[in-house]
Design goal:
It is globular and about 35 Å long. Helix content is 0%, strand content 60%. The protein is mainly β. Strand 1 and strand 2 form a beta hairpin. It has no helices and 13 strands. It has a single domain (8-135), classed as Sandwich (Chondroitinase Ac, Chain A, domain 3), CATH 2.60.220. The protein has a 7-stranded antiparallel β-sheet with strand order 1-2-7-8-13-10-11, with no helix packed on it.
C-alpha cells in the first residue's frame, strides 16, 4: 500500500482513502466533499486525523495510511498501514458495545465512551496493511 499523495481521495468503490505517514511536517486538506459531507484530514509522520462535518471520525498515533474506509449504521471498516504499531481512535455511537476484528481475528468486544470514541492498538510495524472491522 502506498501513501495517499493527495492526502484524501474517493475510491471507485465509493470508499475513501487518506493519510501520509511519510510527511515530515503536518499537511491538511479541508472542504473535501464526499457523500453530502465535508471532510478534513490532517496527516504526517506523527498523527493522522479525519473529521466529517467538523466532528471527529478517526485518529492514529503515529500517522498511518487508511484505505477503503467505509462507515454505516453498524460500524466501520478500513485497511490501515504504518511504519510503527499504532494507537487508533474511531468515532462511533456513544456508550455502545462493538466487536473488533483485525485481519479477520476477533480481538474482543469494546465499548465506546460518552463521546463515542473507541480505542484500539494495531500492530503495523513490518506487517504491511491490516484490515480493521468494527461492528455492533
Amino acid at each position: 500500500m502506498s501513501v495517499v499523495e493527495e492526502l484524501l481521495r474517493e475510491e471507485q468503490d465509493g470508499t475513501i482513502s487518506f493519510g501520509n505517514y511519510e510527511l515530515p511536517a503536518k499537511a491538511k486538506l479541508d472542504n473535501f466533499k464526499h457523500g453530502g459531507d465535508v471532510l478534513k484530514v490532517k496527516t504526517f509522520k506523527d498523527i493522522t486525523k479525519l473529521e466529517r462535518n467538523e466532528m471527529f471520525v478517526y485518529e492514529s498515533v503515529p500517522g498511518t495510511v487508511v484505505t477503503h474506509f467505509v462507515e454505516d449504521e453498524n460500524g466501520v471498516e478500513f485497511d490501515v498501514e504504518g511504519t510503527e504499531d499504532a494507537q487508533i481512535t474511531v468515532g462511533l455511537e456513544d456508550n455502545t458495545e462493538y466487536n473488533v476484528f483485525v485481519n479477520g481475528v476477533e480481538i474482543g468486544k469494546m465499548s465506546t465512551n460518552l463521546g463515542g470514541k473507541l480505542n484500539l492498538s494495531v500492530e503495523l510495524e513490518g506487517k504491511g496493511p491490516s484490515k480493521v472491522k468494527i461492528t455492533k
